[in-house]
Amino acid sequence: MRIGFIGLGNMGSAMAANLVTAGHEVTAYNRSPGRVAELAERGAAPASTVAAACGGDVVITMLADDAAVEGVTFGTDGEPGIVDSLPSGAIHVSSSTISVDLAERIGAAHAKAGQRFVSAPVFGRPEAAAAAALFVVAAGAEDAVRDLAPVFDAVGQRTFEVSPDPKVANLVKLSGNFLIASVIESLGEAMALVGKAGVDKQTYLDLLTSTLFAAPAYKTYGGLIARDEFEPAGFAAHLGLKDVRLVLEAGEELEVALPIASLLRDRFLTLLAGGGRDLDWSACGALAAWEAGGPRPGQG
Q: Active site: which residues (predicted)?
């Protein structure tokens, strides 16, 4: 397929590279051109504008937040965005973790323009993206999701189709990130408790993940906390705060109380206030040990 790819950060660069490896014609755009040059060495075509990446069958966006996705979708600074540039019938796939409200607005704009829109956020860290082992959460019209099967197969190990309404995938993704943040906080508190009593954190983690909690989230994030390994960030703490805020917004819209999410927002704010903005979001799990007399997250 002819695929435009917009956003070559830690996740996007790996996803785009896997699409090239799978034999798709990839045209890539990124605000920082250095990432585009790296991908071009692997066979992608560089695009100097958003519009130049929108001439094919599909354009994928993998960007940090609502502002970035909104800018490339609707245009900014007089430059046309995806809605103004994508051919009729072509598909915009948003793999970014964005708000439910923005996904709804993007879907309406594409429908008005005669284009198709699929939300397809992913679960997995950069190492999973590099291994084409992401889990894709897809929502959109059945024909559009079906047409995208070769794309999703190239970047992930399994695709979950959750709804014909694109914004539902964004809600599911936000709920998943909320659960991961909950795991990070609870693991950090438990490790701070046993660690202050002299228990080795890695030994404790091995016990937990060999008995009660064998899930990947406990192994991955527990390992990062046990090793105080928060740099370089696979997913930065300020993005974790962004996602928790979006979860709270969705809860307010649906009139669902989320008291743990409110706590997590405050924990991320504490981490950022202590200089942890660009640490991995798992550093939030080191706050309890810091507050109990240990080193500040990122300085262990």
A: 173
